[in-house]
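Late entry, written up from scratch paper. The run itself happened at the end of the previous shift, but nothing got recorded in the book at the time, so transcribing now.
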Amino acid sequence: MDFSDSSMNAVYYGVEMANFFDSEITLLHVLSNSMLSNIFTNDSQIALLRDSVRAKLEEVKADILVKWPNVRVNTKVEEGKPFKVINKVAKDGKVDTIVMGTNGANGVEQFTGSTTTRVLKSSPIPVIVVKEKRTSPKFDKIVLPIDLTKTSKQKIDWAVKLGKKYDSTIHIIMELESDELIEKKVNANLNQAETIFTRHGMKFESHLLDDMQYPDHLGMDAIKYAEEIDADLIMIMTKSESSKLTDLFVGSFAEQVVNSSQKTPVMCINPKPTGALATGGSGFY
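Output as recorded:
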C-alpha cells in the first residue's frame, strides 16, 4: 500500500476478506530504492522516512481494529524494487492472496508496466486488483470467463473455494462460436464446469456471449457483462503455459482487463504447469 485512495480501497477490501476467512493481513509499504537514492542523501534521512511510514501504517492498523477488532493485522516497511519485495514478502509469509489497488497504467507505465502489473505477471499466488471503493466487499456474483485451454480450468478451483465460502453465484461465460467443431468444444468445457459446480452444490449460471452484443475479446466482454450484472469479482488467468511468444500477447490482454475494469475487482491467477500444452484459445482466461 502507498496510502493513495486506490491503495486504501484495496486495504479495506483485503481486511474484509481477512475478517471473513479468519485470516491474517499484512499491510506492506515498500520504499523504492530509486526514490530513496534520488531524494535522500544520508541514512538518517531514510531512517526518519521509515519511522514516518511505520507510524502511518500503525494509524491505518488502529483504524482497522476499531471496525474489525478480531482481525490480526501486521505492518511491514521494506526497501527495494516494489514488485520484487511484494513477491518476497508474500513468499516468506506463506501468503495466500495479494490485494492491490491501481488507478490503471497510463503514459510510460503502459510500456514499462506498473507495480501492480508486474506483481500480477510474476506472482505465483492470486492477485486481486481493486480500483473503486467497495463499501461492503463481497462475492455474491463471480464472473468466470472460460476458454478452451487446460489452464483456464484452474480458475474453477478458486471459484469453488470463494463461492462455497460466500454462497456465491458463479456466472460462467464463454464466447458463442459459429464453427461447429469449436462450438462442440465450447459446450464440452461448459458442461465440465457446470458438472463441477453441481457436484459442490453451488449456484451458477451459464451464458454464451454472441458477437452482436459482445463484439470484443472475452476479457473485455467479461468486463461489460460484469458491469451489467453488478458483479463483485472477475476471475482471469494472467498468461498461457504454451509458449513464450503467446505469453507476451496474453500479458498485454491481462493488463488491458485490469486497467479497463473500473468498477469490478479482478482476481488474476498465474497458471500452474499441467504437464501438457494447452490447446485452443489464448490460455488467458
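Confidence is low (pLDDT under 50) at residues 105-112, 240-250, 274-285.
(Scratch paper discarded after transcription.)
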